[in-house]
Automatic annotation (TrEMBL), chain A:
SUPFAM superfamilies assigned: MetI-like
Keywords, ordered alphabetically: Membrane, Transmembrane, Transmembrane helix, Transport
Entry's transmembrane regions: 20-41, 92-116, 123-144, 156-179, 200-221, 263-285
Transmembrane among keywords: yes
Subcellular localization(s) per the UniProt record: Cell membrane
Main location class: membrane
Name of this protein: Carbohydrate ABC transporter membrane protein 2, CUT1 family (TC 3.A.1.1.-)
Membrane topology according to the record: Multi-pass membrane protein
ABC transmembrane type-1 domain location: 88-280
UniProt record similarity statement: Belongs to the binding-protein-dependent transport system permease family.
Automatic annotation (TrEMBL), chain B:
ABC transporter domain residues: 4-234
Database matches in InterPro entries: AAA+_ATPase, ABC_transporter-like_ATP-bd, ABC_transporter-like_CS, ABC_transpr_MalK-like, ABC_transpr_MalK/UgpC-like, Mo/tungstate-bd_C_term_dom, NA-bd_OB-fold, OB_MalK-like
Organism (species): Pseudovibrio ascidiaceicola
An MF annotation (GO) of this entry: ATP binding
Keywords for this protein: ATP-binding, Nucleotide-binding, Sugar transport, Transport
Family per record: Belongs to the ABC transporter superfamily.
Name of the molecule in the record: Multiple sugar transport system ATP-binding protein
Domain of life: Bacteria
Length: 295, 370
């Protein structure tokens, strides 16, 4: 098929007007979205005197990273004045296993639900999907009791457990829908070759799953890293994740409101998800749309 | 030694019976083709032999041993799939070796065996490629290689050539046949292509609606089809079926064949050999089955076969033969003649009918008479 551009009559005046309209609209949307980020970023690079002078939208006079350093290592959160760093590490320790475990379990259950259609597989899948629609608030009390019973309340391990369980619904959905488009004959061929359930999974299915693994990792990482409610409810003090710490930092007023430190802290807390998306984002879009396995 | 024996096998998916009381024996070294339209249960039967589908009822034996509950990997069977089902993430070499790898065969031995199979199939130069870098024909060869490498006692093929273009299909058909002659292994081959079935099979089993209609050599199936379904399924163009009256004239049993000559209906009397079975049906309606080559031009001045003259509505030259569209008993029928004798459309010409080879079917049951 020819490119739409090269079709006859595609470059008329009306086409040009249409283009201008579309570009204006896109530009407006971009300004709307990027505006607040610009303000946060420029404020974080100003000193307090400059902020007090007003002119919210002005560029900073110089690149001043003092606020970033303070937010990272010396800002006071409650009574501890160590900045976000320990909580940031908490979040890393919490996110990495949660993402890895929930992705692996999702892959395994999605594989079982789609390619080993046992009796009742669809019902089990439908029930698992319920998990995607249960609001966090509903499970807080029973979850707190369970964590207490298991002896992992107020710990990062507890949060890992919670996030893994909560994530399985989503990861199973991703992997199940991805594997549905994998031809059954592949499993049959491997069965004839003598591979069992786990070996087929390990040698054939997982290597095929890179795009959907990326989707699952980005999705889970964003969810777990940005999550606030569970972190605030199930942990306190030194084991809190960075989102809770950020909230506490901003609410720990000493004498003056240090807007530049608050802004820098917010950016630090948001950075990992952005980085993950920038690195793997291409695969994210591809993975969500890709279905058929060629070969 | 590898024989397959299936006794009274049944299988249903939900409320549809896919296989109904199938019994089948495959001899050692035999090439059996399961032929049928899609949905007739032939692939299910193959999967049952492979062990990929559990059997609901009946017994399946390999070499006399009941294998109803034996896992596919322990049946010593290899299978080639319609979509080839190559592992997309592995190189051709690993694809072929995967079965050996799963059976814990040493790396050196795997490598040697794969080389050997690759050279048989002339795919040595492809060993380091991924399946996505191969053409359809090459993928097909790799799929064959994957089956061959384990030297199983039974090979199963599930429409392996249906994704290839016509020319390649012909070539691979010949190769599969050669392979069978060299290996002398038992092979079961599923297809809906009657030409594949005719050219490859030692015996063909024709299936319809989960039942075997007829089992026999290709020649038996072609010349003595058990019923009208088989007769119509095998042969291209298909057999002509004509509703005729069985009558007796001057002590000679025969059928009345209504044709059209110069726009006017004419009836021809075609004598049949006297037989008791036919006598019993005197003055009833039966169905006359004529393959196109049984209605042909008269190459000799003298013939024992009856002649009919009728209008030719249309000609379809195929190169070697020309097909003539004529009208018998108000239905279009095809005759096969040499292009040298072809008339122009709209004219009439004389055909001889090869009465020794015609098939007669019961009008009610559609079964072959005699």
């Amino acid at each position: 098929m020819a490119e739409p551009k090269t079709l006859p009559g595609a470059n008329g005046k009306r086409h040009l007007l249409g283009r201008i309209f579309i570009w204006t609209l896109l530009l407006a949307a971009a300004v709307l979205y990027l505006g607040p980020i610009y303000v946060v970023l420029s404020t974080s690079l100003k000193d307090l005197a400059e902020i007090r002078a007003g002119a919210l939208l002005d560029l900073p006079h110089e690149l001043n990273f003092t606020a970033w350093r303070e937010a990272w290592s010396s800002a006071c959160i409650g009574v501890r004045c160590e900045g976000l760093r320990p909580y940031f590490l908490n979040s890393v320790i919490m996110s990495v296993p949660s993402v890895a475990i929930s992705t692996l379990i999702g892959a395994l259950s999605g594989y079982a639900l789609s390619l080993f259609r046992f009796r009742g597989a669809n019902i089990i899948f439908a029930l698992m999907l319920f998990g995607c629609f249960i609001p966090f608030q509903i499970v807080i009390l029973p979850m707190a009791q369970t964590l207490g019973y298991l002896g992992i309340a107020n710990s990062i391990t507890g949060l890992i457990v919670v996030h893994t369980i909560y994530g399985i619904s989503f990861t199973t959905l991703f992997f199940r829908n991805y594997y549905v488009s994998v031809p059954q004959e592949l499993v049959r061929a491997a069965t004839m070759d003598g591979a069992g359930f786990f070996r087929i999974f390990w040698h054939i299915m997982l290597p095929l799953s890179i795009p959907i693994i990326v989707v699952s990792v980005i999705w889970q990482f964003t969810q777990v890293w940005n999550e606030f409610l569970f972190g605030a409810s199930f942990t306190s003090g030194g084991s809190q994740p960075v989102t809770v710490a950020l909230n506490n930092l901003i609410n720990s007023t000493t004498s003056v409101k240090q807007y530049n430190v608050d802004m820098a802290a917010a950016l630090i807390a948001a950075a990992p998800t952005l980085v993950v998306y920038i690195i793997a984002g291409r695969f994210f879009v591809r993975g969500l749309t890709a279905g058929a396995v060629k070969g | 030694m590898a024989t397959i024996s299936i006794e009274h096998a049944s299988k249903s998916f939900g409320s549809t019976d896919v296989l109904k009381d199938i019994s089948l024996d495959v001899k050692d070294g035999e090439f059996l083709v399961l032929l049928g339209a899609s949905g007739c249960g032939k692939s299910t039967l193959l999967n049952i032999i492979a062990g990929l589908e559990p059997i609901a009822d009946g017994i399946i034996r390999l070499d006399g041993e009941v294998v109803n509950d034996v896992h596919p990997k322990n049946r010593d069977i290899a299978m080639v799939f319609q979509s080839y089902a190559l592992y997309p993430n592995m190189t051709v070499e690993r694809n072929i070796a995967f079965g050996l790898e799963m059976r814990k065969i040493s790396k050196a031995e795997r490598k040697a065996t794969v080389r050997e199979v690759a050279s048989t199939l002339q795919i040595e130069h492809l060993l380091s490629r991924k399946p996505s870098q191969l053409s359809g024909g090459q993928r097909q060869r790799v799929a064959m290689g994957r089956a061959l490498v384990r030297r199983p006692k039974i090979f199963l093929f599930d429409e392996p050539l249906s994704n290839l273009d016509a020319k390649l299909r012909g070539e691979m058909r010949t190769e599969i046949k050669k392979l069978h002659q060299t290996l002398k292994a038992t092979m079961v081959y599923v297809t809906h292509d009657q030409i594949e079935a005719m050219t490859l099979a030692d015996r063909i089993a024709i299936m319809k609606d989960g039942e075997i209609q007829q089992i026999g050599t290709p020649q038996e199936i072609y010349s003595k089809p058990a019923n009208m379904y088989v007769a119509g399924f095998v042969g291209a163009p298909p057999m002509n079926f004509v509703d005729v009256d069985l009558v007796k004239r001057e002590e000679q049993l025969g059928v009345i064949l209504p044709a059209v000559l110069r726009g006017k209906p004419v009836d021809y009397f075609l004598p049949l050999p006297n037989s008791e079975q036919l006598h019993a049906r005197e003055n009833t309606k039966i169905i006359l089955g004529l393959r196109p080559e049984m209605i042909t031009h008269n190459a000799f001045t003298q013939t024992v076969n009856p002649e009919i003259a009728c209008d030719v509505e249309l000609l379809e030259p195929t190169g070697a033969d020309t097909l003539c569209l004529i009208r018998l008993a108000n239905h279009p029928a095809k005759a096969r003649i040499s292009p040298l004798f072809a008339c122009t459309p709209g004219e009439s010409m004389t055909f001889t009918i090869d009465m020794a080879r015609v098939c007669l079917f019961d009008a009610e049951s559609e079964e072959l008479i005699g």
